[in-house]
Design a protein that fits this description.
- The complex is a heterodimer of chains A (about 120) and B (about 210).
- Chain A has 5 helices and no strands.
- In chain A, α2 packs across α3.
- Helices cover about 70% and strands about 0% of the residues of chain A.
- The relative contact order of chain A is 0.03.
- Chain B is mostly helical and about 210 residues long.
- Chain B folds into 2 domains: about 100 residues, RNA polymerase sigma factor, region 2, helix turn helix motif (Rna Polymerase Sigma Factor, Chain: A), CATH 1.10.1740; about 90 residues, Winged helix-like DNA-binding domain superfamily/Winged helix DNA-binding domain (Arc Repressor Mutant, subunit A), CATH 1.10.10.10.
- Chain B starts with about 30 loop residues before the first helix and ends in an 11-residue tail after the last helix.
- Classes of the chains: A mainly alpha (about 120), B mainly alpha (about 210).
- Chains A and B meet through α1 and α2 of A and α2, α3, α5 and α8 of B.
Chain lengths: ~120, ~210
């Protein structure tokens, strides 16, 4: 193919492309309505989900307010952490709970060598 | 028909919760409209449909060559746009590029699964009669469009997509590369081969389509 042939070929193709670009490709009315109906449906679903999430968040906020707000939550968290720490590493003046758990129960019968009659006074 | 894609407000708005009304008519970006839609603005859906719907339908029509299939593909693509709206990250990609990619993938899927029963081919739907001035030229344009469409449908799928995006939708090669997820060189190769095949297919119809030989 010569350069002239190529130019003619390109020119003819471009005429076809231009005709295709000008062709009426507006949305068919029914299609536009279906697209908008889809949009309405998806938007409504999305907003419902959003409202549900907000309602859930509202319940958490109510619980928080009941406990006394964020300062109270901070105190509660600190108290929990302190309790756990004391349990793991107790101060010297407190018994070691791990040691207490390891102790075995034992009993000593202090009265074994005494007859009860020698301890209790006899009447008359 | 919905109002053309004009809504007042600054272009490229971010985090907007309601479309401004009245006053200056400045076009909102697609990003801003998607954000508005996600925030419940109903007008955003109308503007996006008016702006992007015809693109989706047009490209699907050219690639599939069938109005019913093209309508289904365009509707499905727009539905995915509505669903994706809350998760859209402005500035990362163009909404139109994303939409074109969805349409192209839907077209590929439809081709893989075969034609739908009862679908109406593009050529089978007559264009409305137009007795006004320039009708002869329009008829000739219609014949050329039909001839091009018939030739397009002989191309392999990816060549057809590349040619339609490049020469009918007039997108740049880098944009097409992004849509088709291939390199720019591959786009150039696909369009070049596609045009050669189209030229050969149309060569025998020059006289019929009103071209002077030579």
């Amino acid at each position: 193919m010569t350069m002239v042939d190529k130019d003619i070929e390109d020119s003819i193709l471009e005429t076809h492309f231009a005709a295709a670009r000008c062709a009426n490709t507006d949305l068919p009315a029914g299609l536009e309505a279906r697209m908008l109906a889809d949009a309405d449906r998806v938007q409504a679903e999305s907003l419902r989900v959003g409202e549900g999430a907000l309602a859930g968040a509202g319940r958490w906020r109510q619980l928080l307010a009941l406990l006394g707000g964020w300062p109270a939550m901070g105190g509660l968290a600190t108290a929990c952490a302190a309790g756990v720490w004391i349990g793991v590493s107790p101060p010297d003046f407190l018994p070691d709970p791990v040691g207490l758990m390891a102790e075995q129960n034992s009993s000593v019968n202090l009265l074994d060598s005494y007859a009860l009659s020698s301890v209790l006074p006899e009447d008359g | 028909m919905a109002r053309a894609g004009i809504i007042s407000g600054p272009p490229g708005a971010r985090g907007v919760t309601a479309a401004p009304s009245g006053g200056e008519d400045a076009e909102l970006s697609d990003d801003a409209l998607v954000a508005l839609f996600a925030n419940g603005d109903e007008r955003a859906a109308r503007v996006l449909t008016a702006r992007l719907g015809p693109k989706a339908y047009s490209v699907a029509l050219r690639v599939l060559g069938n109005r019913a299939e093209a309508e289904d593909a365009a509707q499905e693509a727009m539905l995915r746009l509505w669903r994706m709206a809350p998760d859209w990250r402005p500035g990362e990609a163009q909404v139109s590029t994303w939409l074109y990619r969805v349409v192209m993938n839907l077209c590929l899927d439809r081709k893989r699964h075969g034609k739908r029963a009862g679908a109406v081919p593009l050529d089978a739907v007559p264009d409305p009669a137009d007795p006004g001035p320039g009708a002869a030229e329009r008829m000739q344009d219609g014949a050329r469009t039909d001839a091009l469409q018939a030739a397009l449908l002989t191309l392999p799928e990816r060549q057809r997509q590349a040619v339609v995006l490049r020469h009918i939708e007039e997108l740049s090669n880098p944009e097409i590369a992004g849509i088709m997820e291939i390199s720019v060189e591959a786009v150039e190769s696909l369009t070049a081969r596609g045009k050669r095949t189209l030229a050969a297919a149309l060569a025998g119809r020059q006289e019929e389509l009103g071209y002077d030989n030579g």
